[in-house]
Design a protein that fits this description.
The chain is 70% helix and 3% strand. The protein has 294 residues and is mainly alpha-helical. The protein has a domain of 185 residues. It is globular.
Length: 294
């Protein structure tokens, strides 16, 4: 069977692979949305923290013999602690300044992290094998899908929707949202707002590192692995709406699928289709698809 002269198995395969890419877009854009929505900081270091999660995973196995499953917890934790230190030492000084200062500061952090790791490991990729439990592939009829890709989609969706529920449906999430809009009122309830802000940034960094752990067996672990991906992720956040949690999740998944479809219909446009969509959305709805008009 063919659709528009495209074999149906090929179409379904690319759509499914696009969903895998979209899972990475969703979880990375979610971390960006959490940080911007709560702290109003354009975190240009997000790609570096994604890379850091993958590098920590590689280091854990090769230096300390710590397996993939443990690093799913440890790498985001280590990255989150690192993010908390950065927030306390550097970021807290730019909250009341123009967004440009935060963007330039986090860009500088990115360059430092990439430069240090590049001097140690070089620019070439470091291999990391998928865990034995997720090796092999599943026959879907129209394609042979690696089991690890299935795990990436399931784990990403679980973390994304758990984060959405935490922020939008719990008392803690209500405190977080209120603390960014009226910190004096929240402090009156006995909440330590600076600590809450620090933990929010650490959580966003941890989400990026978690995505890095998932990416380690899929991509070559490299100090530069977050550079190209983060540009697309910023576009996803703009399309979904800056600070919109659900917008980031749905837009990330949708654009991943759209990118996969474009690779079948018009491969030359697959690298730019996300930015075309961003331009159209900004013209029609500057706040993004799920963002709130100010």
């Amino acid at each position: 069977m063919q659709v528009f002269d495209i074999p149906l198995p090929m179409l379904l395969s690319q759509l499914l692979l696009g969903l895998v890419n979209g899972s990475f877009y969703a979880i990375l854009s979610l971390g960006l949305a959490v940080i911007f929505g709560m702290l109003h900081v354009i975190n240009f270091a997000h790609g570096a923290f994604f890379m850091l999660g993958a590098v920590f995973t590689w280091m854990g196995l090769n230096y300390f013999g710590v397996n993939y499953w443990a690093m799913l917890l440890l790498a985001p934790l280590f990255a989150g602690v690192f993010g908390a230190v950065i927030e306390r030492l550097l970021l807290r000084w730019v909250y009341k300044l123009d967004h440009l200062y935060g963007m330039l500061l986090t860009l500088g952090i990115t360059l430092v992290l990439e430069g240090v790791l590049r001097s140690i490991y070089g620019a070439s990729g470091l291999p990391y094998r998928a865990p034995e439990a997720l090796s092999g592939a599943t026959q879907l009829g129209f394609m042979l899908l690696p089991n690890y890709r299935i795990w990436v989609v399931v784990a990403s969706l679980a973390v994304c929707f758990a984060t959405w529920y935490l922020i939008e449906r719990t008392r803690l999430g209500a405190y977080l949202r209120a603390g960014t809009e009226n910190p004096k009122l929240v402090e009156a309830f006995g909440i330590n707002v600076p600590v809450m802000v620090m933990l929010t940034y650490a959580f966003g960094v941890g989400l990026a590192a978690f995505a890095g752990v998932l990416a380690a067996p899929v991509m070559q672990v490299s100090p530069l692995m977050g550079q190209n991906l983060i540009i697309v992720v910023f576009a996803v956040v703009v399309i979904g709406g800056m600070g919109s949690i659900m917008g980031s999740i749905l837009t990330g998944l949708g654009l991943g699928v759209l990118e996969g479809l474009t690779k079948v219909v018009y491969p030359e446009a697959s690298a730019t289709v996300v930015f075309v969509v961003m331009a159209v959305v900004l013209l029609l709805r500057p706040a993004g698809l799920f963002g709130k008009e100010r």
